[in-house]
């Protein structure tokens, strides 16, 4: 039984780490897009995202990719990105493409903001799974069957010099680098220490203006904190939510503070999209968060709670 009969396919995941050099690893750019498994069989192409959803209707232009893959059947791991004129991925431009199932709307977006599939691993080729081969061999096989075009790119790599490659990738505008042990096999659905993602993080002080309801083990506390900052006109604007980085004591302590600050209405103008109920609070708490980058619409990407900043006046949090 091949991976085609075992769908959906969970992608292999990496663990965070710091830049390093090693003769045992290859290093490739970390693409800022939608992690996607591409499945090609007898000319039919399907796309499955990291959440195991069918993303095929979202990107009609990616159907052209099958002309650039020299194989009867293949399963390729990669990232769907929208590239700027500088050749850098823009997650902000990609977000409107998520979940679009209306054919006419999808085709309009495909024309105005075309996406590209960046291939970086080969899981299956011509009725045989390749996941038990080394990543070095898998990438060699992948490169041989790909013919790059407007909607298809191969993610190349270097070996050994990870620190220098990381500095170059960051200087060009990529969000980081992924290191992969040359002899590593592909383990679907597992987070492996043989794949290491190296991203630079920055910190920001944010004002807490609300919190979302918690679920499961966090039902008694909260799911995430709603973050904001003051713009140059003195108005609060939404920076996103942070739901990770808390220990149990912090969850309990912060919830006790939040309950005392609850209010009926939001202090932010306009609506905030949320899948969970938001309880609004007075904007008197400041917390420090780590984050990977900031989107064009001023939202923090990959925020993680670091600490409360009781020493800071929220009125001073201008961004």
Characterization of this structure:
This protein is of the alpha+beta class. It folds into 2 domains: 3-199, D-amino Acid Aminotransferase, Chain A, domain 1; 202-316, Nucleic acid-binding proteins (OB fold (Dihydrolipoamide Acetyltransferase, E2P), Beta Barrel), CATH 2.40.50. Helix content is 15%, strand content 37%. It has helices spanning 91-94, 103-112, 135-145, 162-172, 248-260; strands at 13-16, 22-29, 34-41, 44-49, 73-81, 116-125, 128-129, 152-154, 158-160, 176-181, 191-199, 202-212, 225-230, 236-242, 262-263, 278-291, 293-294, 300-301, 304-308. The strands form 4 sheets. Strands 3, 4, 5, 6, 7 and 8 form a 6-stranded mixed β-sheet that branches. Strands 12, 13, 14, 15, 16 and 19 form a 6-stranded antiparallel β-sheet that branches. The chain is globular. The termini are far apart.
* DSSP summary: helix tally: 5
Taken together, the total number of domains comes to: 2
Under CATH, the topology of the largest domain is which? D-amino Acid Aminotransferase, Chain A, domain 1
Q: What's the helical proportion of residues?
A: 10-25%
CA-to-CA gap between the ends?
A: 54 Å
| Rounded average pLDDT | 92
User: What CATH architecture of the largest domain do you see?
Assistant: 2-Layer Sandwich
> Could you name the CATH class of the largest domain?
Alpha Beta
The coarse overall form would be globular
- Radius of gyration, taken over Cα atoms and rounded to an integer in Å: 22 Å
Low-confidence stretches: none
CATH homologous group name of the largest domain: DNA ligase/mRNA capping enzyme
What's the helix-strand series? EEEEEHHEEHEEHEEEEEHEEEEE
How does the major sheet shape up?
A: 6 strands, mixed
Care to count the β-strands? 19
Approximately what portion of the residues adopt beta-strand conformation? 35-45%
